[in-house]
Amino acid sequence: MGIVEEAHNLRVIGRADGGRGTIVLAHGFGTDQSVWKHLVPHLVEEYRVVLFDNMGAGTTNPDDFDFDRYTTLEGYALDLLAILEELRLGPCIFVGHSVSAAIGAIASISRPDLFSKLVMLSASPRYLNDVDYFGGFEQEELDQLFDAMRSNYKAWVSGFAPLAVGGDMDSVAVQEFSRTLFNIRPDIALCVAQTIFQSDLREILGLVMVPCHILQSSKDLAVPVVVSEYLHRNLGGESIVEVMSSEGHLPQLSSPDIVIPVLLRHIRYDIAV
Amino acid sequence: MRGGLSAILQTLTPEAASVLTRSVEEAARRKHGQTTPLHVAATLVAASSGLLRRACVSSLSDTVHPLRCRALDLCFSVALDRLPCSSSSSGGGGGSGADSTAEPPMSNALKAALKRAQAHQRRGCPEQQQTPLLAVKVELAQLVISILDDPSVSRVMREASFSSTAVKAVVEQSLSSSSSSSSTTAPASTFTSPASPAIFASSLGGGLSHNLSIHASPARNLYMNPRFYQHRHSSGATAGGGLEEPRREEVKRVMDILLRSEKRNPVLVGDSHPDAVMKEVLQKIESGDAPPPLQTAQVVSFAKQLATAAVASDLSWIPAWIRELGASIESEMSRGHGVVLDLGDLSWLVESPGGASIASAGSQTRQIVCEVGRVVVAEMGKLVKRFEDHGRLCLVGTATSATYLRCQVYYPAMENDWDLQVLPIASRPRTFPKLGVIGNLSSSAVAAITRSQPPDGADSSGKILCSVCMESYKHQLARLVTEEIKKSPSKVEDNKALPKWLQLAKLSNGGGTKPSTSLLQAKEEEQELMGKQSTEELLKKWQDTCSRLHPSFSHTVLLGSPQPDSDLTLFRNLVHRRKIMLNASSEQPCSLPRSPVKTDLVLGNSRASNALLEKTHAERVKDFTECTQDGFSIQQRAKVTGISEKDAFKRLLKGLTEKVGWQQEAASAVATALMHSKPENWKRPGGGAKGDTWLLLIGPDKVGKRTMATALSETLFGTAPTMVRFGGTSTCSNGDDGESNMVSRGRTPMDRVSEAVRRNPFSVVVLEDIDQADGVVQGGIKRAMERGRLLDSYGREVSLGSVIFVLTSSWLPEELRSRHESLILLEEKILHSVGHGWQLELSAEKNPGKRCADWLGNGDQPTKLRKQSSCGVGLSLDLNLAVAMEDAAGEGSWNSSDLTTEHEHENGRLAVKCSTSSSASQWMELVENTIMFNPVDFSPLRRTVSDSISTKFATVMGDGCSIKVDEDAVDRIVAGVWLAGAAFDEWSERVLIPNLRQLKCNLQADDGVVVVRLSVVKGGPAKSPGDREWLPTSVAIAVDGLWTT
Q1: What is the three-class DSSP state of B965?
Q2: Could you tell me the CA-to-CA distances from B686 to B106, B230, B481, B584, B690 in Å, in that order?
Q3: Alpha carbon B128 to chain centroid distance?
Q4: Count of Cβ atoms closer than 10 Å to residue A232 Cβ
Q5: Which site among A27, A257, A260, A264 would you substitute to test the B interface, given the most B Cβ atoms closer than 10 Å to its Cβ?
Q6: Phi, psi of B14, deg, nearest 5
Q7: A228 catalytic, yes or no?
Q8: Does residue A27 carry a catalytic annotation?
Q9: What spatial distance separates the first Cα and last Cα of chain B, rounded to whole Å?
Q10: So what's the pLDDT on residue B55?
């Protein structure tokens, strides 16, 4: 096992021969690869499935977290490319949740040959509102959020997790998200959150030529539904939007019964041209 | 090829883009298959005033030989000549024209170089700025740097006696001087750049071109986080040793170097406080704590003198001072003391006193510093020479990697003249205490490891031999070398001062044409390569032997590697070795716990159904049964225990078909599925036999599904199944009852399921309309399916045992649904008709002509007419009366005149169902066996019922009057018959005929009545839940408004 594999807790499971293709599952902020636990069983029979943890996730070595490298999403995109390069599995179906969808998009601009399509779950090109853009957040709100993270991370987690998941504190999904969120070292979590919330991909969406499947909860604290429409209109390549009846920013964790079939459909079928 | 040239060009500044375009053109012109970094480098060099060329010139310390730049051109030209032509253009003469015009795609190496350039470019940007990957345009300088990093380019450069590293440093300096803000980040970035360290290591390592591939491969991944390298090894040490232990080790290493006979002047190179180690060393020496020869040594601090000089910002006195120093050293030595000269941080050699680097300072200052530095180096060299024989003068110093690199660039002679030994200091202690090597490391071993002269410079690969093996290796190497020399006598005469390209130039000047020189050089190169390869092989052989014989030794590799930047490679080897060692104990778990859910979709899979869109339902069902039966028979054949199972199968099938005769195919499918999945070969992945069985019955015919489940339970276990319904009020049963039942008993459906399972682990549990259950229940069931355990609302777990779960859903693939829509609607209507308080009424009408005034305005006529024609066969239905009666009966009944609204209602439901269909189809994917039910055609049954009523009426009443049976009444009777499974004849004997007789008696008094009507009225006794009697036990008789029961 190489350095990259070890650092990212890389796991390749499912069909050794590749089956119907390779699927890369990339988790979003505050989670780790376990967020895909409901989806993975449905894939392993047919696909080769690549799971990894983004740098900065609770399961990675904090010493590897380079605060400079990860001040922009490109740092993560380079990580992703490093993983794909290391594996040499050819073009993959990339399923990215939240920020990882954006990371996948960036990486795909640089190396479109490595991606056959992107499935973007709860993705947003920009979280801040702008003149002609509704991202869902105002700068003051974000500043408050960062302050809260800085001052008392634990308290922030217990407040943020139910909001993001869209359930009460007792629900399994919220517990799960809180767990993975709390695993992250607070300073790293803050850095990651700042990078994510300050990111703006709108300029480069047009350069994404890989087909994109945009999946979105009908109610999501972090990503308003209009955002998926914005993505759809501005992505350079083919794209398709499906708004699911689920709620919350982590629907694959909170409403797997709704989201998994949709995900599977979008993984299995390509956009009809 | 992907990502065409134009896309790549977008990421470059116009300047860089034009270079790339020209390179591609060059490759096309030469008919090369790919555009490689060599093409780009050649293009860059060809521009006489280009950046690369200027950098090459200024990288040379002494005056530039006029031939040297020409050599550069020549070497690149030769290198390009050696590249293979693309096969297609060399293959056919005709097609070559077209091929040559096409752009040769970028080679991977070039792509990688461009990526590197991009990464470097981004690093240079101000940190706060959000710079998307592509918003950054790669400048020419960055392109040059990354091209220089390419192994093939640096090899060619070396052939021309240029150091790509040195050239790169110059370019970087020009970069940093141009943008003062990034002056520190730019050079640093090249050191942390993932690809460069390895290349550094090899290019500094002494001109072994073929070593490059060895070095380059581990660092191939250009996207990698450079931190991984730094921390991978630190983890081991921090776990065991702490900081003190490694520091001591390093001090020890310095001491060992000082004690050597040659190359004994250590320079500690590292980016993290090498001076701390040095300080400790000097303290040790001063306090007399050092081993014998050093015990009495005096420490002369050059650095302190320097500090005072820095204030004066004038270095010119240093050479003189060094000469003075010589005298004082001599006097010390005459007294028998050794002298340790502490040079401090070597940065003073390459930086002006103010602290700015040479490049960033003005050219004048730069000149001065260079001049002074050169003199200092020369003087110091003399000093070292002078006391060489006495063996008592030692130089010690520290430097950062960047500083040391610059020293090498500006003062190439320094390393040799000063007799320096580079000692890399890692940013973190790099030891592996786990292996317990460090502790027993004897000083003699250390001395041996820190090799004296690396033979032929060959082991810059970082592998080191123990003293014994090294001895043998050297011996063999010497023999090999003499053989080599014998083999190629032409090489012996090569004069060391003249670089290879100059020999080449001589040759070409001497009349040799270009091809011949290139040929000659290639040959020479080949020989050399062979020689080096065999050297390398020899080394490798001994390394293998050594690691086999002295395994503990191979882990001490860290010590004394000659080059500051080779430690990465070194370290990789180590990591690798450690991996092998620890492999057995620390095997990584490599797969997720696999879910037990096996998707065994036989039918109804949405994909399959899409594909089979054309097939009729019957065909599909047939296909399905055939295929499952095939599967079954195959399995049967494979099994030796055929007979008993076959019997069981037959018995089951018989039981099912008896009960659900109209769903013949489904019955056999259910039986097959059960027999198929019953054997214990069904293992839950992740361990444990799977006793529970899951069936999913889809399609219309609620009764059929329910009956099937009941029949299954009765046949297999002899008990009635546990029914849990999720369908809400739309079920044919007393849906409200079911619902309120659950609520009133304060238990969730999951509790009921788990209770049933707990009560009897050998039973059938029916989960009706599972797709209409709420998410929690569905999730719970799914989890149970996966784990074989059921969790009730109290958090208690119940094993599923051998329970057969029958899930039902009325979902149908869309195209089937539309095909059978009328049948499905009819079924729903009929089933809806029961369950409300109703009763049958026989009424004798005296004035049959009564009409409802607003009847026509109702707008229901077309529907009714259609309904009438479709189902009212052989019956004269008096619709007027029906409406009248319905009006009398009040609103809300599922009467025929409600058909329109009902229809809409149904459409609404359909729409809803379509949207939630994913839920049902999802279940189909989860459950092992899905069985499709046909829609039931009720018309034969209806006909039988109405015919039978007419017949019975005629026999009882005689010919005098006729009976009209409301359609609604027929529906309800049909529904009752259907749901109860009761025989209609039995009911009519028991209920209808006595009532008819009574009616006849009542009518006797009254003449002229010709029409008797059987209709439905609202009201009547509400049925108690659990009442299995679906048909009314009595019929009301109404004559002239008189009601009797």
Answers
A1: strand
A2: 47, 38, 61, 23, 11
A3: 30
A4: 16
A5: A257
A6: -50, -40
A7: no
A8: no
A9: 89
A10: 79
Q: What are all long-range contacts of B658-665, with beta carbons under 8 Å and residues at least 24 apart? A: B658/B711, B659/B707, B659/B708, B659/B710, B659/B711, B659/B714, B660/B704, B660/B707, B660/B708, B660/B711, B662/B704, B662/B934, B662/B936, B663/B701, B663/B704, B663/B708, B663/B933, B663/B934, B665/B621, B665/B622, B665/B624, B665/B625, B665/B934
Mean pLDDT, residues B339-346: 79
Report the residue from A3, A110, A261 with minimal CB separation from B918.
Answer: A261
Task: List the catalytic residue out of A249, A254, A255, A266.
Answer: A249
Spatial distance between the Cα atoms of A186 and B420, rounded to a whole number of angstroms: 46
Collapsing DSSP to helix, strand or coil, A199 comes out as coil
Please tell me the pTM assigned to this model. 0.34
Residue B651 CA, chain-centre distance (Å), reads 50
Q: Is the pLDDT of residue B190 over 80?
A: no
C-alpha neighbours within 13 Å on the C-beta side of residue B936: 27
Helix H segments across B151-226? Answer: 151-159, 164-178, 185-192, 196-204, 211-216
Handedness of CA B192, B193, B198, B200 (dihedral sign): negative
Residue with tokens 């060399």: B90
**What is the rounded distance in angstroms from the CA atom of residue B846 to the CA atom of residue B592?**
80
Least confident range from A73-77, A196-200, B169-173: namely B169-173
Cβ contact, residue pair A3, B2, below 8 Å:
no
Contact by Cβ (8 Å): A193, A146: yes
Q: How far is the C-alpha of B889 from the C-alpha of A263, rounded, in Å? A: 52
The answer to whether B127 and B109 are in contact (CB under 8 A) is no
- Which of these is catalytic: A97, A122, A220, A254? A220
- Joined together, the tokens standing for residue B784 give 């149970």
ipTM above 0.85, yes or no: no
State the average pLDDT for chain B.
62
CA distance B639 to B762: 25
Q: How confident is the model at residue B458 (pLDDT cuts 50, 70, 90)?
A: very low
- Closest approach of chain A CAs to the CA of B220, in angstroms? 9
The DSSP annotation for B252-281 comes to HHHHHHHTSSSS-EEEEE-SS-HHHHHHHH
Q: Which residues of B touch A109 (CB under 8 A)?
A: 133-134
Q: Which residues pair with B423 in a beta bridge?
A: B268
Q: How far apart, in Å, do the first and last CA atoms of chain A sit?
A: 40
pLDDT digits (tens, 9 = 90+) for B1011-1041: 777 777 766 554 444 444 566 666 777 665 4
Candidates A3, A44, A45; nearest CB to B232: A3
pLDDT at B911: 34
Cα–Cα distance between B1031 and B835 in angstroms, integer? Answer: 10
Instruction: Calculate what percentage of chain A has a pLDDT beyond 90.
Output: 58
Q: Residue B986, exposed/middle/buried by CB under 10 A (0-12, 13-18, 19+)? A: exposed
Q: Which strands make up the sheet holding B393-399, listed edge to edge?
A: B298-301, B339-345, B393-399, B265-269, B420-424
Is A249 among the residues known to form the active site?
Answer: yes
Angle, vertex CA B990, rays to CA B989 and CA B996, nearest 5: 70
For B544, other C-beta atoms within 10 Å of its C-beta total 12
- Rounded-to-integer distance, Cα A216 and Cα A224, Å: 9
- B298-326 pLDDT, tens digit per residue, is 777 776 776 666 555 566 677 777 777 77
- What does each C-alpha distance from A72 to A21, A69, A79, A105, B130 come to in angstroms? 30, 7, 12, 14, 6
Residues 6+ apart with CB under 8 A from A227: A123, A124, A125, A134, A135, A136, A216
Q: What tokens were used for B485?
A: 């020399």
* Residue A41 to residue B921, Cβ atoms within 8 A: no
Please report which helix (H) or strand (E) contains residue B368, including its range: helix B363-386
A111-162 pLDDT per residue, tens = 888 999 999 999 999 999 988 899 889 999 999 999 999 999 989 998 899 9
CB nearest A262 (choices: B130, B225, B918)? B918
Q: Would you say A33 and B585 are in contact if contact means Cβ atoms under 8 Å apart?
A: no
